[in-house]
């Protein structure tokens, strides 16, 4: 399996993000294999590279270490992870999206992939199971927590 990392900079509405991602998908489809191999440019985003394996995080933490260090806030309702996991829809998702605009490094995503669950710094859409908002900002965006 090949992995491609794409970074999108800027703030916007959910609809604007979806439109931007659709544009990126169209641009990716238009790239030739040779362009992808050498790291072709995509307007409004950056194709950082193609990997034979998923890039390793810069930092690994256990769940209890992460909770102590970054202090996820409570959702106000009964939810997993000691009441700190926000849903991926409705009012809770709107609260997360509002925080993405103002404090993107305080948003974390519970993901599931390749047979494991993990929490990753930042707002992710694909393979998401839930979100967290923390009191303390992530120092970097390539942190993984075993969930």
Which sequence of strands runs across the widest sheet? 3-7-5-4-6
End-to-end C-alpha gap:
23 Å
Strand content: 25-35%
The level of helicity is 25-40%
Rg (C-alpha, Å):
16 Å
The average pLDDT is: 75
Alpha-beta classification: alpha+beta
Helices, by number, come to 5
Order of helices and strands: EHHEEHHHEEEE
For the sheet with most strands, the description reads: 5 strands, mixed
Low-pLDDT stretches are: 1-9, 40-53
Describe the structure.
The chain is globular. The strands form two sheets. It has a five-stranded mixed beta sheet with strand order 3-7-5-4-6. The chain has 147 residues and is α+β, with helices and mostly antiparallel strands. 32% of the residues lie in helices and 26% in strands. It is built from five helices and seven strands; from the N terminus they run E-H-H-E-E-H-H-H-E-E-E-E. The model is unreliable at 1-9 and 40-53 (pLDDT under 50).
Keywords:
147 residues; alpha+beta; 5-stranded mixed β-sheet; two-stranded antiparallel ribbon; 5 helices
Secondary structure: elements and pairs:
Elements (H helix, E strand, L loop, with lengths): L2 E5 L6 H17 L2 H5 L8 E6 L7 E4 H8 L9 H4 L6 H13 L4 E7 L2 E6 L6 E6 L9 E4 L1
Parallel strand pairs: 3-7
Antiparallel strand pairs: 1-2, 4-5, 4-6, 5-7
Task: Describe, in short, the structure shown.
This protein has helices at residues 14-30, 33-37, 63-70, 80-83, 90-102, and strands spanning 3-7, 46-51, 59-62, 107-113, 116-121, 128-133, 143-146. By secondary structure, the chain is of the alpha+beta class. The chain starts with a strand and ends with a strand.
């Amino acid at each position: 399996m090949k992995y491609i990392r794409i970074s999108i900079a800027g703030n916007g509405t959910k609809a604007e993000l979806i439109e931007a991602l659709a544009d990126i998908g169209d641009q990716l489809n238009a790239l030739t294999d040779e362009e992808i191999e050498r790291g072709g440019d995509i307007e409004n985003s950056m194709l950082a590279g193609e990997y034979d394996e998923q890039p390793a995080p810069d930092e690994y933490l256990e769940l209890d270490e992460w909770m102590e260090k970054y202090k996820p806030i409570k959702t106000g309702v009964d939810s997993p992870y000691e009441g700190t996991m926000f849903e991926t829809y409705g009012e809770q998702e709107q609260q997360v999206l509002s925080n993405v605009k103002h404090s993107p490094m305080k948003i974390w995503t519970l993901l599931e992939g390749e047979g494991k669950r993990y929490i990753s710094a930042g707002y992710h859409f694909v393979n998401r199971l839930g979100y967290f908002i923390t009191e303390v900002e992530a120092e970097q965006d390539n942190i993984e927590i075993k969930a």
